[in-house]
Design goal:
The protein has one domain: Divalent-metal-dependent TIM barrel enzymes (TIM Barrel). 42% of the residues lie in helices and 15% in strands. It contains eleven helices and nine strands. It has helices at 2-16, 37-44, 59-68, 87-90, 111-124, 142-152, 163-169, 175-182, 201-204, 215-224, 242-260; strands at residues 25-28, 48-50, 72-73, 75-79, 99-103, 128-131, 157-162, 186-191, 231-233. It has a nine-stranded parallel beta sheet with strand order 3-2-1-9-8-7-6-5-4. β2, α3 (59-68) and β3 form a beta-alpha-beta unit. α10 crosses α11 (242-260). The longest helix has 19 residues, at 242-260. The two termini are 31 Å apart.
Length: 262
């Protein structure tokens, strides 16, 4: 009993000083259209840019520009069907803790091996590969992504949870169990404002301060799973001023994180 009395206050102290849940937060390139994107994202408080689609000759310049501003190019957005990604396409991201966000538009007998070779190539460059489930593609859902991960069977291949595509293709009630099933394969997450039951991208992709989807539900689930990966802000085709959208989304993000700490 005495030992319990001694240890119990200590356990509370450890809990009180536990590292807060505060993932790095990146803006998708599709929401960044500025003369100096690195300076703008730094001003707004983002940790960098994600899902860039730069040609191999343009990617090094982006990496240099963002790193000069103290920010990061988190990921490049690519597709694999039957041929693996070439190292030259992603070499600029090597040794930076970056990601390849990988879509699978079409599935054929060569796809599994092409993804496996991509994962192995990226591992040599210290770049993770995260399958990106995308509505209308061969890998459109989280279960489909997890099935492909199992078939490929490479430690450098994981999955990225994308809220808008999840709400488009899957049952929102399965959110927590879907995330739990990913285990250590959940490499990254993207979010945005969204309407539950939304049928089109205008409803499913909004600034983070809009929509009726409860963002805290998603991030409480991730916090409970000890998720420590990056979070991207999906901005595809959002109407209005991009700077204003990003500014309001950042304010909403800070509110979400602050409420999680309560």
């Amino acid at each position: 009993m005495l030992l319990f009395k001694i240890l119990f206050p200590f356990s509370l102290l450890v809990s009180a000083f536990a590292e807060p849940f505060q993932p790095k937060f990146y803006a998708f390139q599709n929401g960044v259209n500025f003369k100096n994107p690195a300076a703008t994202l730094k001003e707004l408080g983002f940790d960098g840019i994600s899902q860039v689609r730069a040609h191999p000759t343009g990617l090094p310049k982006q990496v240099q520009s963002f790193e000069a501003a103290g920010l990061k190019v988190l990921s490049i957005y690519l597709n694999v069907n039957d041929k693996p990604i070439e190292p030259a396409t992603v070499r600029a991201l090597a040794n930076r803790g970056s990601l390849i966000e990988l879509t699978i538009q079409k599935m054929n007998p060569k796809t599994v091996e092409a993804v496996r070779q991509t994962a192995a190539m990226a591992e040599n460059l210290k770049i993770k590969v995260a399958l990106y489930p995308h509505h209308g593609f061969a890998v459109a859902t989280m279960p489909q992504a997890m099935d492909l991960i199992k078939k490929v069977n490479h430690p450098n291949l994981g999955v990225m949870f994308n809220l808008c595509h999840f709400l488009k293709n899957e049952d929102p009630q399965t959110l927590e169990t879907t995330l739990e099933k990913t285990g250590s394969k959940l490499f990254a997450v993207s979010t945005c404002g969204a309407n539950l039951g939304g049928g089109n991208w205008n409803q499913l992709i909004q600034p983070l301060d809009k929509g009726d989807f409860p963002q805290e539900r998603l991030f409480r689930a991730l916090n409970s799973l000890k998720f420590s990966g990056p979070v991207g802000l999906q901005c595809y085709a959002i109407k209005g001023d991009k700077h204003d959208n990003l500014q309001k989304s950042m304010a909403a993000w800070k509110t979400i994180i602050r409420n999680l700490a309560k």
